[in-house]
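Ticket #272: bound-state structure for cobalamin.
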Amino acid sequence: MNPSLNIAALTQRTGVPSDTIRKWEQRYGVLHPERTSGGQRRYSELDVARVEWLKERLHEGYRIGEAAALLGAGDQVARTVDELRNGIVAATIASDVDALGHLVDQALALSTLDESFVDVLTPALAEVGECWASGSVSVAQEHLASATVRAALLKLLSDQRADVHGTAVLACAPGERHEIGLLMLAVMLRSEGWQVAYLGADTPVADAVALADGLDATALCFSAASQEGAQALDRELATTPPRESLMVVVGGRGTTTTDVRDTVAQLGKLAA
Ligand code: B12
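RESOLUTION: The complex was predicted; output attached.
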């Protein structure tokens, strides 16, 4: 993008005063204008998009330092859920670690977790999975994308603490390594006031039940990505049924229970 705008034009395009723009530029390094031979700053369309993006975040209540850190230094600005989703897939294909990290963080900063999960992260990972199946994304690139999302969700989970509703224990079925859907459920439960004990991938059923009992948990949620995994889990739960007062939910793509938001709402009602 050819930098052709002076600071007055950038101010006119974005509505942000020129002294604010200079401050953002100098303190937070969010813009890197080129200089004319006479030393005048020249901004590009990318700079316009970056200033507008920052302005939107400030409007949502972010502080400028936080918004600048979230924006990162990439050469693209994703302003819609479609751009975020496509950006995550493109960053995976390009193995662009930095862009991937910022785009995933930006997705998680959307105004609702539903938007982040349903409109951006789940379809982006599904597309990465299709690219992997067709050979246009390597196993390493797929791992990079899923590990980035997983790490960002774990960070969100560790940032929040609550126990208004009681404790929910979350585990993947035995042999199950797909855990991102379960992590989304964990983040959403926690944001709704649950204390979450997140056990993660490949957990023996009896151990998860015993842990839930030990914690006097209100709910125990399992995730199974395959039908075989879900059926084996159901068989195990049938042989050693958990105590009646423990709400047990088996969800994931191997079952018919896939809606995280619905499950959170139902558990909330039952626990009330
Ligand atoms: C990332 C990934 C992996 C990672 C997982 C890393 C991790 N830490 O989670 C790794 C590398 C481990 C992996 C391994 C495998 N994978 Co994989 N993987 C994926 C990929 C790309 C994304 C999965 C994901 O996280 N999606 C995002 C989440 C949010 O979506 P979700 O899992 O569908 O969950 C949603 C709901 O089900 C719900 N949910 C989930 N759990 C629960 C629980 C409850 C209680 C509730 C209410 C809701 C809920 O929440 C989500 C939001 O709606 C998918 C592609 C895809 N289409 O999803 C392939 C995919 C699922 N994998 C696939 C395959 C084949 C495999 C392997 C067999 C590959 C191999 N040969 O080794 C192994 C199996 C490993 C195992 N034992 O489990 C296939 C499955 C095909 C099929 N027949 O179903 C897919 C579809 C890829 C493809 N296009 O072929 N995989």
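RESOLUTION NOTES: The pocket of cobalamin is lined by residues 122, 125-126, 128-130, 133, 142-143, 146, 150, 175-182, 184-185, 221, 223, 225-226, 249, 251-253, 257-258, 260, 263 (CB under 6 Å).
TICKET STATUS: resolved
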